[in-house]
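Shikimate O-hydroxycinnamoyltransferase
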Amino acid sequence: MGVENGNFSVNVTNEEVVAAVVPMQEYWLPLSNLDLLLPPLDVGVFFCYKNPMLKSTTLGNSGTNKMTFGSMVRSLKNALAQTLVSYYVFAGEVVPNNMGEPEVLCNNRGVDFVEAEADVELKCLNFYNPDDTIEGKFVTKKKNGVLAVQATSLKCGGIIVACTFDHRVADAYSTNMFLVSWADMAQPTKPNNTLVVTVAPTASRHPCFRRSLLSPRRPGSIHPSLHHMYTPISELPPPPSTASAALLSRIYYVTAEQLHLMQVFAATRTKLECFSAFLWKMVARAASKEKNGKRVVAKMGIVVDGRKRLGNGDKESEAMMESYFGNVLSIPFGGKPVEELVEEPLGFLAEAVHEFLAAATTEEHFLGLIDWVEAHRPVPGITKIYCNNADDGPAFVVSSGQRFPEDKVDFGWGKVVFASYHFPWGGETGYVMPMPSPLRNEKRGGNSLNLKRRNHFKPLSLSFL
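Structure:
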């Protein structure tokens, strides 16, 4: 019981810095206008693997050999050093320029790499409450640079590989590209135990750092809706004098049957739109019980990736945007009184979600957002939903992780049994990321590590009445 509540120890056994395997000329890489919309925020992601068993290749020996933690760590470091040749931004550091804006100094300072051991088995970890079992234990806090890595051995022989990265430099899409390339480089068939620099494998995507793809227009054109969605931080009200209660982090699972049932109520809308509408209703229902006669508005935003919107039908531009490394995000949002959200059917709310999403799914929206940032520089901007005042009502953001490539992050010792992004969120706006099951089992859906032990993943109780 103590282990499941996070009462176990994780001891650091080694710390070092892993840099790219070849010397690199130092230079500055500016952040794009869309990068500048992100506040200083570090985001974590972790991958859990069972005790790896590899078939012996020794002639006449049909047994199995366990990989040691030491051999796995060496493979991770060697592959990381090679992958950083292409993803050199992750080996740099963020520093202010002469305007006070953040830029990436690509100096190959390297990635802080932590090795640790935990006196707990994988099956005993309570992922339902990552605040206790993940935060500060398996996902290291980044102290320097852009990226930090921790590899932790478990009592059962399993391993957890975790990364923490600066969100101002990369969004989840960019980080996913890096993770797939890193894992592909670590495969036993790759020359990852030598200092030979290899070409990025075809299964991976070579990153594109062309900031000119997100250049502002001259003259700019800004739609009035952007002033509703974003604000310069200079116009924010002063923070409240009393600190609000910290948000809790929890992991639930939702079955495919439940997702299909949601779409019954809004058959013309996507699963994400329907699921977001359901969460909106559920949050409003909870807020309605505590409003004490006040008018309370519940706000919800959804993260939109602009890469496909900015291709403009040109194949070369589309290919570059598909591999673009950086932030290409916008967060449209809507707000409604909690009474309306509680009373209206799910299909009506799904239409409302689709309506505010539609305004941000065009090329013109993202071009206008780039122009909006340019018009306010060097004063940073931020999406208004991140500046929510809890006294006015609840607010949260949904970011789809359905394209999370956990099945491709195989470092050579087997598939992921569970993986998740981890946000040590410090504001008053909630954050929700629906992610696929590593089992890819449509009937079971959701987070699926050790589903029989339901105290490890709490089912999300759904009611559509």
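Confidence is low (pLDDT under 50) at residues 54-63, 192-203, 441-457, 459-465.
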